[in-house]
Amino acid sequence: MADPLIVKICGIKTYDMLDVAIAAGADMVGFMHFQRSPRHVSIDDLGGLISAARGRIESCVVLVNPDNSCVAEVAALGPDWIQLHGPETPHRVEAIRAEAGVEIMKALPIGGAEDVARVAEFSEVADRVLLDAKPPKGADRPGGLGESFDWSLLDALDPSLPFMLSGGLTPDNVAEAINRVKPLGVDVSSGVERAPGVKDKRLIEAFIRNARAAV
Ligand SMILES: O=C(O)c1ccccc1N[C@@H]1O[C@H](COP(=O)(O)O)[C@@H](O)[C@H]1O
């Protein structure tokens, strides 16, 4: 039997939406810790959200090119995962993984064949890779822009490399994405919001329902 699809709802900021994601059957939630994000959660608030998730759903804190003190501070809160969503090199991912002692998901921007060619080196040093759309030049953040990428680029990927898919997923396109790309899991933020940083219960439920129905 195929592995069950992992569904991650990212950019959760409130206890209500954490409860919604859990009740709707998500496997993971992501909390952003990046000042420029409309989903930014402070260190103080992260602690409470991670504790509220513990034992109910896997939690993941999203960081962008963090320094060692930020990694240590976040790891001490006890999330299941840290997602690295910046320009971290394979060497840096390896160092953070050793330092943090939690599982590491490395997000990689995909905009062309050269980006697909780099996935394998990160698969060796991270516990999981997440493939996201490459942000346009001048974007003020490296993700969470609701932009998708050309999924056919992934045809060139070694089929033995598992990955999660993100970037512009919505309740309307998630089934098509799953059938086309056959990812280990799917990750969404903007596509389940009614405004930047404001999650919508019905969209979260529809996203998870449509993702589960696709497999
Ligand atoms: O959400 C953000 O603002 C963000 C900021 C910096 C790095 C990553 C960010 N979000 C992550 O990007 C992917 C795709 O998001 P979307 O569904 O296209 O909006 C996802 O992992 C977000 O959590």
UniProtKB/TrEMBL annotation:
It catalyses: N-(5-phospho-beta-D-ribosyl)anthranilate = 1-(2-carboxyphenylamino)-1-deoxy-D-ribulose 5-phosphate. GO terms for molecular function: phosphoribosylanthranilate isomerase activity. Its EC number is 5.3.1.24. This is N-(5'-phosphoribosyl)anthranilate isomerase. One of its GO terms (biological process) is L-tryptophan biosynthetic process. Residues 7-209 form the N-(5'phosphoribosyl) anthranilate isomerase (PRAI) domain. It is an enzyme of class 5 (isomerase). The keyword Ribonucleoprotein does not apply.
